[in-house]
Amino acid sequence: MSLLDAGAALVDHPSARIEYWPQACDAATADAWFDALLQQVPWRSDRRMMYERDVAVPRLLAHYALADDTAPAPIRAAREVVARFVAAPFTSVGLNLYRDGDDSVAMHHDRLAELVPDQPIALLSLGAPRCMTITTQALPRTTQKIELQPGSLLVMNYASQLHYLHGIPKTKAPVGPRISLAFRVRPT
Ligand SMILES: O=C(O)CCC(=O)C(=O)O
Ligand SMILES: [Fe+2]
Q: Where is the Fe2OG dioxygenase domain (predicted)?
């Protein structure tokens, strides 16, 4: 594969781009990173105010600054894999652990205040496949679903956060745990 090959384009828009590579890293590597991160990361459970109620965020979270060399080795290795597909000066990685089908992330766009304009977000998936829903922000909403495979990479450009929403819905299907690594360039 040549450097910075284009992935499959998931949206058709003049400025928004969401690209998908089903196998940015091989299955054995994705499995090894999943096992290591599940064990080594100090996963935390967060609470957020939602409609004036204090509710548990339905997944576990962690975060590392990429300059932090105490980050587990798979984080640094994953950063190198991501660099083969997207050239961006990532500074931060947010980790999500979806323990089962009850864990989810609601439809959202990533917080713009936490992104440097024109820099992308790269999501590397490990563990069980989970479905992502992508909708337009404009009405009438059009919706698409993509099953994120272990070892896959999904890259959303900055403009996609202005025109689309994404989320990982709950599922009643029996699914195993999944970890996603969200690489971002955060303002300093
Ligand atoms: O787990 C995923 O693939 C999506 C995570 C996400 O959207 C986020 O962390 O903002
Ligand atoms: Fe997101």
A: 89-187
